[in-house]
């Protein structure tokens, strides 16, 4: 990859500092105990991914597995109430389970573990797959799951306090986000050209928006031993938006064949796929670098700024996810 951008991010001096998070099992147990939750130290397992929360797993004295999420930034705390409303809404519509928060405070969210195992985990920087990312069975089940999620009435979501983006707002927000990132980072010309073509092409953009998860990759999808979907976690980024925001993860992890299977199952279960979705999702996936750039600017953390700068400056050729 090329070096970081020449000009550092124009981050406000008052950008909030990261919150302290537990560094040891003992620290985690002490935090949980302050909220009345007793855990066993030998059962603690820290999870390495998650930009908004530090995540850990641990058992209580009765053997119940718990998920503990510790906010990394004050801005994350501000989204908690919205996420509770989202969980209540989607939990009533999905066959898959969602988290049932038992503890919610500024320094800890905790809930009994949702049944199943994450389809992918990250340990010591390495991906470990529980499922076959190219599996047609998983692609089909994923399409059915998304059809259920996307069928939730957008007005009910609005009434529940969920953010709603109308179709015209979706493209406009992308336009503003791309402008902000390209103003702060040195972006490879091929990326910029691709994104401008994408923004200008009416055929790519949705005529309707739906309830979406936003980060429904295998790390947030729980499965059983047969790759059946048992639960979906981490609804922090959920909102009413472009359905491709979720569908693109089928392309990203399984490639075009899996994506085709997902769309077929999605349509059979009542979803409404539109034309040019594959092309839209290809560019949408590459534009994930924009999201990381925005995150780096929001947090003001140099490590994230440098990583985002390197990604944005790199040549996108050969960047298909499979």
Automatic annotation (TrEMBL):
Record CDD domains: MPH2 (cd05152)
Region named Disordered: 1-22
Signal sequence, start to end: none
Protein name: Aminoglycoside phosphotransferase
Top-level taxon: Bacteria
Sequence ranges of Low complexity compositional bias: 1-18
Pfam families (UniProt xref): APH
Lineage: Bacteria, Bacillati, Actinomycetota, Actinomycetes, Micrococcales
Gene3D superfamilies documented for this protein: 3.90.1200.10, Phosphorylase Kinase, domain 1
Residue ranges of every copy of the Aminoglycoside phosphotransferase domain listed in the record: 53-272
